[in-house]
Amino acid sequence: MFKITPMTATVIKNLFTRKSTRPYPHVVREPFELARGELYIDINDCIFCSICERKCPSQCISVDKKKGLWTCDPFACVYCGICMGVCPTRCLHHKKTWRPVATEREMISMQGTPPKAKKKSSAGKEPEGM
Amino acid sequence: MSKTIIPFGPQHPVLPEPIHLSLTLEDEIVVEALPALGYVHRGLEKLCEIRDINQMIQVVERVCGICSKIHAQCFCLGLEKMMNVEPPPRAEYLRVVWSELHRIHSHLLWLGLFADSFGFEALFYQLWKIRERVMDINEATAGNRVIISVNVLGGVRRDLSAEQVRWITSQLNMVEQELKDLQSTILDDYTIRSRTVGKGILTREKAYELGAVGPTLRGSGVAQDCRQLGYSALKHLEFQPVVEQDGDSFARNKVRFLETLQSISLVRQALKGLPKGEIKTKFKGSPEGEAVSRVEQPRGELFYYFKANGTKNLERLRIRTPTFANIPPLAAMLPGIELADVPVIVLSIDPCISCTER
Questions:
Q1: Least crowded by CB within 10 Å, which of A57, B44, B276, B358?
Q2: What architecture (CATH level 2) is domain B43-352?
């Protein structure tokens, strides 16, 4: 004997409502304003203080003060946003969107201008690592 | 009749995570079940020796994906107690909002997987569709969908604007309405009842004796919920544990469904009573001594033990997760049932294996 279950009403209702899924990647959802996507740095504002490197829970950031090089391993980054919060110059940001799928393991390396020990030379100290 | 030993897992279509059960059968009836763990051990507790207490929050969040926020909250509550740090009232309310959102999406995920375990695909997709609204709330307010990283020692990292509070309330109203539309299916449908009623019975005495926790315990008639301790802002909110008496798979299913509705009510209460003010208390120093903390995860009681020596790193961190406590009750539920019902009953305790193995 055919029996109508309580789910039948939901299934019929679904037939007449719009789709819940979208044909990704042709249609992409608008990202949320506060979403934590890919990490990037405004390297010109970076003072290479290494605080982000020390505070990062996954230790994915490395900062070379002498060379002025900031490197992040995007495969180790856990998108927690800690580095963004501790940065004294607020030069670290998260994009709203995720990093695209990669076929090769590449680091995000940003070359900036090393601080040149301006303060130290003005204070009469020896320039570091020169 | 001769006995047959059949391996169940670690790879099984119904299991999201690896657990192995060695089932001894007489004909089609299980007479003994021996669980074996150890497939996804990661040694996260040991990391406390090389990561400082602030970095450990992100580590403990990864003990369990689905209730990450609650792990971090338990970690913060224990260390705050040790260091005599009092989070501001607004942070305590926000912690409840996010932890109850986690409970909602965890229960919805489980309800979907449970429906899937006996082949009710339409209900599975329907429940996961509803869950997406909660995931969107997480992403829009905290930045990420699952591991939301909002807890810090002394408070939370993100605040909610008045506009966001209104949006969350409207989204939760929709979630509640959509769930109530499915209530008659989840609680009365013939398909579900025939696969769950009277299956995997755990009596009240046995549940208590074997140390069951969470919905597994409450489904057997014991009104015990760590939220009764009133941690964070829960002491200011109206809350009564959901209890069912039958102790079978259906009772556990019903407890989780009703808890989802209850969590929506708790989020609503917390958002309504959200006090104004700071979201983080500043503090200095490092923890010293010993402490424990307990909170209620979607699966049951979560227990953390801390031992600190006044440095930035903990000396010892011990995590006892609810699935660890629910495995002996599972082994007690299985004898006497048919082999075909084993997947449904294993899923009825909501096993989170990576959580258990840390």
A1: B276
A2: Orthogonal Bundle (1.10)
> Beta strands B288-297 and B300-309: pairing type?
antiparallel
Tell me whether the omega of the peptide bond preceding residue A25 falls within 30 degrees of 0, making it cis: yes
What is the CATH number for A100?
3.30.70.3270
Contacts of A37 (CB under 8 A, 6+ apart): A31, A79, A94, A95, A96, A97, A98, A99
Contact B129 A20 (CB under 8 A): yes
Q: Return the beta strands (E) in chain B as ranges.
A: 3-8, 20-26, 29-36, 151-152, 155-156, 288-297, 300-309, 314-320
Query: What are the two backbone dihedrals, phi and then psi, of residue B88, each rounded to the nearest 5 degrees?
Result: -65, 155
CA B132 to chain centre: 18
- State how far residue B145 is from chain A, nearest Cα, in angstroms: 9
What does the pLDDT look like over B34-87, one tens digit per residue? 988 888 888 888 888 888 888 899 889 988 888 888 999 999 999 998 888 889
| A21 within domain boundaries | no
ipTM of the complex, rounded to two decimals: 0.79
Contact A79 B191 (CB under 8 A): no
> Are B190 and A78 a contacting pair at CB < 8 A?
no
